[in-house]
Amino acid sequence: MADALKAFEAELESKNFKGYWQNVQGDVNREPVPSFEPCHWKGKDLFAAMEKAGDVVGLDVSFRRVIQMWNPSLKNGTSRTLVLNLQLLKPGEDALSHRHMAGAIRFILKGHGTRLIVEGESFEIGEGDFVTTPSWTWHDHENHGGQAMMWLDGLDSPLVRLLETDFHEPDPRRKQPVTKPEGYTLATMGALRPSWVRQNSIQPPAFCYKWDDTEKALSKVGEQPGDPYDGIVLEYANPLTGGPTLPTMSCQIHMLRSNEKTKTHRHTSSTIYHVWKGSGVTTIGDKRYEWEKGDSFVVPLWYHHRHENTSKDPAVLFVMSDKPVMEALGHYREDAKPES
Ligand code: GTQ
Ligand code: FE2
């Protein structure tokens, strides 16, 4: 009998068929089992490494001077879908223009005087500013100031790699011309919009969210109860639709107030955190991760997690997650851990 089945399976295989009983779908799990693990990157190590990179890695060697928060439980990337990088651009440097399928965001950590040029608009950026370069937008960076600039890059390139849909085009012009007036997008794609300009319904416009505004918003909502699992949360919304930052990622600022402790939950989206201010502890699964300014960490999907601000000052975290992907596919689920 067993021999007959084996022979049958061989026959199926020879014709490019597979029986469902041949373990096609592997072990069936009753709930998500992530294949990658939490990870914590120390800011001290990251910035020391980047200082070295500034000495030994020129833009002739590397198109962008970038160090990845590599999750060693993955071949590449920070989570299954997203990657968090640190980029350094030294005074006088130009990072040449290109565009790619991967959507990207920048969160500026250090310095001022650099310009990010996206789709013909030049954005002057400073610490705490947040800029999007949505999928397939031309982007180059130039540091004509006297200060080294460092920012976080968040990209959905691991997801693009999974989907194998990457297009990637170096700009034949090397640098793109600035064709839009200063402040163009802010003035036309916020609450006031020219009626004749047609908008892309999937990709948001490239947009710059200034830290001053973020800080103001934080102070306006800082006394409210906030979210029981994340504290105070501000999302960098698509200015046209109010939807997520990019179709593939939601970026947010979280604030945990003095000694605030959140409740425990889990969800089918994975989240990457970078500590912008303050210090605290995040429990992921059964492990505690003590973090401080400059650190990054990742919470894979379906891991229980909770946060605690262990200091008297507010803790502010820059956060990105793939929740929009899960929501668009109908895969988003969330559940609270019953209090013990
Ligand atoms: O600045 O264009 O961190 O293309 C990775 C890929 C930054 C960029 C990254 C990129 C860029
Ligand atoms: Fe890029």
What does this structure look like?
This protein has 340 residues and is α+β, with helices and mostly antiparallel strands. The chain contains six helices and 22 strands. The protein has a six-stranded antiparallel sheet. A hairpin with a 2-residue loop joins strand 17 (279-284) and strand 18 (287-292). The relative contact order is 0.15. It binds 2,5-dihydroxybenzoic acid and fe (ii) ion. Fe (ii) ion (FE2) binds next to strand 4.
Question: What key attributes describe this structure?
Answer:
6-stranded antiparallel β-sheet; binds fe (ii) ion; alpha+beta; 16% helix; 340 residues; 32% strand; binds 2,5-dihydroxybenzoic acid
Topology of helices and strands:
Blueprint: H1 2-14, E1 39-41, H2 43-56, E2 66-68, E3 83-89, E4 94-100, E5 104-110, E6 114-118, E7 121-125, E8 130-133, E9 139-143, E10 149-155, H3 157-163, E11 168-170, H4 184-188, E12 208-209, H5 211-221, E13 232-235, E14 250-256, E15 265-267, E16 271-277, E17 279-284, E18 287-292, E19 296-299, E20 305-309, E21 315-321, H6 323-328, E22 334-336
Antiparallel strand pairs: 1-19, 2-3, 3-10, 4-9, 4-11, 5-8, 5-10, 6-7, 6-9, 8-12, 13-14, 14-21, 15-22, 16-19, 16-21, 17-18, 17-20
The structure holds 2,5-dihydroxybenzoic acid and fe (ii) ion.
Fe (ii) ion is lined by residues 98, 100, 104, 139.
